[in-house]
Amino acid sequence: MVKLTVVGCSPAWPNPGGAHSGYLLEHDGGRLLVDCGPGVLARLRREENWPRIDAIVITHFHLDHCGDLVAWLWGHLHVVNGDAPAPALWLPPSGRADLANLASRFEEVFPVHEYADGEPFEAAGFEVTAERVLHYELLAFGFRASANGSVLAYSGDSGPSDALPRLAEDADLFVCEATLLAPNPEGGTRGHLASDEAVEAFEAAGAKRLLITHRPRERPLDSTLEQAHDGMELEVK
Ligand SMILES: [Zn+2]
Ligand SMILES: [Zn+2]
Q1: Is 63 within 8 Å of 132 (Cβ atoms)?
Q2: Running DSSP on this structure, what letter comes out for residue 227?
Q3: What confidence score (pLDDT) does residue 233 get?
Q4: How many C-beta neighbours within 10 Å does residue 158 have?
Q5: What separation in Å is there between the alpha carbon of 215 and the centre of ligand 1?
Q6: End-to-end CA distance of the chain
Q7: What is the CA(186)–ligand 1 centre distance, in A?
Q8: 8 A C-beta contact, residue 18 and residue 8
Q9: Fewer CB atoms inside 10 A, N or C side of the chain?
Q10: How far is Cα 212 from Cα 182, in angstroms, rounded to an integer?
């Protein structure tokens, strides 16, 4: 069985009381954290003094998806005395440089890796494949993660793109962003989806279950759609 806990699911600004992006995937003792935005580490610390996480995978270097890596680093440098090993960090291609822009000492503490577009890698006992998605001009990825025959797909932050139905093809669960009220309010290169577009990608993928995320409180969702909330736990099957 694979279990998903939505640690945080706010968009670029926090929903009231909310944490930013962080999704904990667990199976057979392997623990994989997908994205690590502000508020995620504090939430995890409510459950255990310092979280024992095997690997963290980051979709892109917008603050709401990676900001708590800095807090995680400071914790390891100052208070974590070997009781929780530092998780492996899996970053986008060229992510080492982005990481160094956040703080200088990451590689003293964490095993750091860069994944490659479309090439499966193993993290926390999951097979993970990253695929580039459309997020303005930024290098950004969605993930497909599988273990024990269960498959979860995650859009990260993405505009409409053929990558989404590929990532989520026949997945048991598709966690897909729907940040916008209408498809393209800002014009220009797309960076996010409206909920109808998330549904379109889900249907094109033939996935089993759609969970909408990264949704601002100010933009209520059609009640027929299932929406992530902080603390939500579900089985991926
Ligand atoms: Zn975001
Ligand atoms: Zn973003």
Answers
A1: no
A2: B
A3: 98
A4: 31
A5: 10
A6: 7
A7: 16
A8: yes
A9: N
A10: 15
